[in-house]
Amino acid sequence: MTSLLSPFELSALYAVVGIAIAALFYALLLRRQVLRERMGSGKVLDVWNGIKSGANAYLKVQFKSLILFIGILGIFLFFSASVDDQPFFIAIGRVGAFLIGAFFSAMVGYVGMNMAVQGNIRVSEASKKGFREALKIAYRTGTITGMLTDGLGLLGGVVIFLIYVDHSPDVLLGFGFGGTLLALFMRVGGGIYTKAADMGADLVGKVEQGIPEDDPRNAAVVADLVGDNVGDCAGMAADIFESYEVTMVSALILGLSIATLGPVFDAKWIVFPILVRGIGVVSTIVGTYAVSKWPDRLTKGSAFKAMDLSYDLSSVISIVSFLMLSIFYVNDIRVFLATTMGIILAMSFNKISNYYTSCDNNPVKAVAATTKTGPANVILQGIALGFESTVWTILMIAATIVVSMLIWTGAGILFAFYGVALAGIGMLTHTGNNVAMDTFGPIADNANGIGEMAGIEGEPRKVLADLDAAGNTTKAITKALAIASAVIAAVSLFSAFTETLGVKLDMATDPLVFVGLLIGGALPFLFSFISIKAVTRAASKIIEEVRKQFRMPGIMEGKKLPDYAKVVAICTSAAQRDLAGLAIIAILTPLIVGTLLGATAWGGFLAGVILTGQLLAVFMANSGGAWDNAKKRIEEGHYGGKGSKNHEASIIGDTVGDPLKDTAGPALNPMIKVINLVSLLFSGAVLSLRDLLVWEIPNTGLQIPVASIILSIVMIGIVAGAILLTKRESKETLCDIEEEGASKQ
């Protein structure tokens, strides 16, 4: 197979394998540096032990529930490849890649989360030495997760490519699907956990009892800190890992189609995206290590500014390297322009997300100002801001796609799609930086919480608060980037889907395209309904438990610690309840559309999912981020400060936004990609079933695909059962509330 590659290409790919291994060694080096730092003792250590045990207990439960599901899907993947007439070595390779992708995604989430837990207590202790030292530990701890994402993603992708070469896209689909499926579970489960705990802690502790956010008397406070790790560390790391894989898969699928156009196989179209990823890892290592090295005159004491400068440094290194590669290897400047468009899009998303969610900018200031007139106006202002931000973000993505396609004017639609895929490759070139910035957020948040619970005061307290504020901004930015990468990846996969099946989407001549568009457009709303309902149901249980514990003698007086483990257990159980149903909906719905309505409706369905999924995710992320930082702005002393009526109004806005920005919105990213990958993986097998058993009605010429209809009915029944199970539990919760109200009367 490797005979299709030139000696230079083989050497370059082996060098990329070396770069991937170097990224993993860099992660180990940073781990060693972080673990050498002082942890602290006494009360700080007690709080930290509770966070550590709760986070690991949650992931243990989640991984146990995933093993059977992954095994069953692996079997279906093998048989679908067989039905699709794929050779045995491709079928077995796809299943193996699926399992490896799932394992790598789980490893990134698990190791990244554990390192975040190890880092937060050390950041809390380092705050006593000063801002720069605390920043260094927090960011380098986050970088460990980033380099694991880069290293494992690149290593798996390149090794599979070297083994299969021209068949590698078929196998890499399995690799991407494994990572995507794990991300769906970890993102949704972690989001339900963290926001249920956060809402319970805030509504009872802050609003009802008027105590600080991380007060040790609040029974939900440890679960809240645990949730930051399982949601924003484990969940987001897995999310970006699968985006990293999926963009590579789509570029290789389209690159392979181009490579086989001529009489001789031209490997440069599929080798170039891999080399770009290798360059990105090198530039990321340089950029991430520079964060704590920037002089104060450039950063002006801002943690976010230091990270932003490092991101720009990585971008400059990558862009120059892409230019050299396009000139001296590909001999086509267009590949440089397409990948650079992706980097520009990533940098633009950083800026626009910062504008809409940062405490220092007008949108958040406007939300904070509306607290003077009550929570209703706070919520309306946040909703309006979210609606506005979706317009600019969708225009930015549209412009990137248009420019990426215009670059290839005259080359044909296949090259235009390839340009979009390269933009996705460029956008996630600095995945290590992105994950490091995101993981920095919960590390700083946890460090601040540990400091508050342990009674750290003075200058160290201010250092922790400043890092926490920067972390809120970095989390909002990386959420926006994750959404954008999901859309670009989905558009690339959609291109690969239409290219593979030869689907032509023409609503004028085929109304089924419009039917598919409507169904796909509705699916993100159904997904969001279930995930938000799961949060509210779990939060209701936590609120009741926290209220009950506050009524226990000695808790409010600080003479007795609450039962933190009880709330952690409630969150852990609640986070698992709806995961299977959401996965079933994401996997089976595209198969139902394809089986029942055919290829053109299936294409319309995917387009609908991408469009409304993007708009809804951006709306929820930016509205939630603005509400969160409006609350932070008031807590800094504006508009009455902590404990005021304005503060209460901001807490309500933040509570509404929490499940939007940290559960439902982020859950749409892996959902969009799961649906597109399922469509690519199973399209051949599903569409072949339509011809398996056909009944022709006499004297009409009408043919009924009996096998497809029977299979569709079965799958519709399963999906309906998953939805009804969610609604049944909701009714049970409602009945419990009504019974409790009646008993009080």
What do these coordinates show?
A hairpin with a 6-residue loop joins strand 1 and strand 2 (703-705). This protein has one domain (2-689). It has 745 residues and is mostly helical. Helices cover 83% and strands 1% of the residues. Helix 1 packs parallel to helix 7 (268-289). The chain has a two-stranded antiparallel ribbon with strand order 1-2.
Structural key phrases:
745 residues, mainly alpha, two-stranded antiparallel ribbon, 21 helices, 2 strands, 83% helix, 1% strand, globular
SSE string, helices as H and strands as E: HHHHHHHHHHHHHHHHHHHHEEH
Per DSSP E runs of 2 or more residues, the count of β-strands stands at 2
The profile of the biggest β sheet is: 2 strands, antiparallel
Distance between the termini: 77 Å
Number of domains: 1
The oligomeric state is single chain
Low-confidence stretches: 734-745
> With helices defined by DSSP (H or I, 4 residues minimum), what is the helix count?
21
Residue share in helix = over 70%
Q: Please tell me the overall pLDDT.
A: 81
Could you say which structural class the secondary elements and strand pairing correspond to? mainly alpha
- Tell me, what's the shape? globular
Beta-strand percentage range: under 5%
Gyration radius, rounded: 25 Å
**Can you list the strand order of the major beta sheet?**
1-2
